Amino acid sequence: MKKSILFSLIIILLSSCAKKQIANSSGQANQSQSQLEKNNENLIGRISQETAKVGIDDNALLVFDGKVIDKAELKLLNELKVTDFVEIKALSKDIAVRMYNEQGEKGAVIIIPFKDELLDTGYYEGLTNEIVVKAISEYESQGLINKNPILIINGVPLLGDEIINRINALGENDISKINLLKKQTAYSIYGIRAMNGVLLIDTQ
Q: From CA 184, how far away is CA 81, in angstroms rounded?
């Protein structure tokens, strides 16, 4: 009788331990899945996944829209949605060196962003307003913007044909000031479209 009771207690104890192990394994699996999903939600997490695939680390060369960027720029881009990036691709050290010479010694990560067709450089080629053209040129020469920044007139962003039509219609005395919007603020307001810079144009 005592042996039967003891045997039953052992069975119950083993069953309880087995359930705990299954629960712990399930919890760990859920935690790993949760971490994976979290990584997929931001750019830096996606980069870590891609670099691991080709055996390079996070110190690889970062190339965003064809231009080399630093970790500070990456941190700003990380605040954007992952869907703002069309492709994130890691290159092995051998391939990176062939493409970028010494800069690619630690491998490279190519980040291709979404581009709004209504902000294509073609819409800026007909700009004749000297004040605006000069402002774009000066900021571009400092490496602060590209040739096709978002132009905001009194809080309204211009897209497509509006860029030439609205800007060229402004007279010399119509513009009171032109300011460059800080990159962090620009990204937070306009998302990936702010990658070429944002100029605020106030009229009188």
A: 14
Q: What residue segments make up the domains of the chain, in order of their start? A: 40-114, 118-203
Burial class of residue 164 (count of CB atoms within 10 Å of its CB; 0-12, 13-18, 19+): middle
Given a cut of 60, is residue 104 above it in pLDDT?
Answer: yes
Mind listing the pLDDT tens digit for each residue in 147-180?
A: 999 999 999 999 999 999 999 999 989 999 999 9
Nearest to 201 by CA among 183, 184, 176, 173: 176
Q: Angle of helix 43-54 relative to helix 2-40, nearest 10 degrees?
A: 100
**Model confidence band, residue 129 (pLDDT cutoffs 50, 70, 90):** very high
What's residue 172's pLDDT?
A: 82
Give the pair of three-digit tokens for residue 40: 């997929």
Does pTM top 0.90 for this prediction? no
Q: What's the Cα-to-Cα distance from 177 to each of 113, 140, 196, rounded to whole Å?
A: 31, 17, 20
CB 151 within 8 A of CB 160: no
Amino acid at 197: G
- Side-chain-facing half-sphere of 188: CA atoms under 13 Å: 6
The H or E element containing residue 26 is: helix 2-40
Short-list 31, 197, 46, CA closest to 124: 197
173: three-class secondary structure by DSSP? coil
Tokens of 62: 């970062």
Q: What is the pLDDT of residue 89?
A: 97
Is the distance from CB of 139 to CB of 199 less than 8 angstroms? yes
